[in-house]
Design a protein that fits this description.
Blueprint: H1 2-19, H2 26-34, H3 40-64, H4 69-88, H5 90-94
């Protein structure tokens, strides 16, 4: 699970660096989402943002033909890997922590 956290931090950092000058309110959004003690909300936001990004770029490539396949491959690698990894780890993050019983 630590590897997934590191991966999401890396991809999130890359995404933040890419939009830094375009969206100055990203820090307000981050505070609003991550100040929630419930860890389900940030995970849902991350998953939906990757799905939205992949869908957006697929639409640009397949319908509008405004994107090169090399760029789609890069987006597909990061978004696809993140989506698959998050879905594989979904139960580990959604289930409440269990206390170990001592006999």
């Amino acid at each position: 699970m630590k590897a997934l956290g590191r991966w999401l931090m890396l991809v999130g950092s890359l995404r933040l660096a890419a939009v830094w000058f375009g969206f100055f309110d990203i820090w307000a959004l981050r505070l609003a989402v991550f100040s929630n003690a419930n860890k389900q909300a940030p995970l849902h936001c991350d998953l939906l943002s990757f799905i939205y990004a992949l869908g957006h770029f697929l639409t640009e490539y397949l319908i509008y033909h405004t994107m090169a396949v090399a760029n789609l491959t890069t987006v597909g690698f990061f978004a696809g890997t993140s989506i698959i990894w998050m879905l594989l780890q979904w139960e580990a993050h959604m289930s409440p922590p269990t206390a170990s019983k001592k006999d």
